[in-house]
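Quiz preparation item.
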């Protein structure tokens, strides 16, 4: 088990990339509403109330930026982590859904210092057509990204092998390319935290 922390401090929220503070290195998390993004960010930071876990998906419609205030001697202090608004929640009003595309696309294409985008896919049900659309868009625009499959604990251990294969095929990747996690059961959280640290390392 890795003991290196990733202590985060909330900095600000924005609707446009130019409103965000400059960063030496940044990673972003994106995914369908309810995929488990807030739970995962809280688990990575080991801070319970950092990102809001909610049963009202789609409520958080802003770009939220956090700064690493303790990287456990990794030298990554000052790097940033961005929580992008979740996509694909039907109850979000049309005008907000319409704004989502330009806001997220602008961020993903223009953000200086963005090193890696972690795309969260629900391990028990994904990838959904919207997830595939997002992955295709990232590939087409050459935005570096890594797929993280969430809620691994919801897949029965007897079904995991098949599920992993299906999910990887749905994302057109190899099984080994996908990071499987469970925030609820703390599975592979250390591994993902190390990966985040490796992308925040500058120079
Ligand atoms: P977000 O909308 O993507 O930020 O998702 P949340 O983190 O708010 O989680 C959505 C729902 O999934 C909540 O009810 C969480 O308790 C649940 N959830 C999140 N992560 C896990 C997990 O690892 N395992 C299980 N079983 N449920 C999870």
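Solution:
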């Amino acid at each position: 088990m890795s003991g290196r922390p990733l202590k985060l401090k909330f900095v600000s929220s924005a609707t446009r990339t130019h409103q965000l503070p400059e960063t030496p290195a940044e990673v972003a998390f994106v995914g369908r509403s309810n995929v488990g993004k807030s739970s995962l960010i809280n688990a990575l930071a080991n801070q319970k109330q950092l990102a809001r876990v909610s049963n009202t998906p789609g409520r958080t419609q802003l770009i939220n930026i956090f700064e690493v205030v303790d990287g456990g001697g990794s030298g990554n202090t000052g790097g940033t982590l961005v929580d992008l608004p979740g996509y694909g929640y039907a109850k979000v009003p049309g005008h907000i859904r319409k704004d989502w595309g330009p806001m997220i696309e602008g961020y993903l294409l223009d953000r200086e210092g963005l090193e890696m985008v972690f795309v969260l896919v629900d391990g028990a049900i994904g990838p959904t057509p919207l997830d595939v659309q997002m992955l295709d868009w990232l590939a087409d625009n050459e935005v570096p990204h890594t797929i993280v499959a969430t809620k691994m604990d919801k897949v029965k251990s007897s079904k995991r092998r098949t599920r992993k294969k299906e999910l990887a095929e749905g994302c057109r990747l190899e099984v080994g390319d996908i990071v499987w996690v469970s925030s609820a059961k703390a599975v592979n959280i250390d591994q993902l935290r190390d990966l985040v640290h490796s992308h925040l390392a500058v120079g």
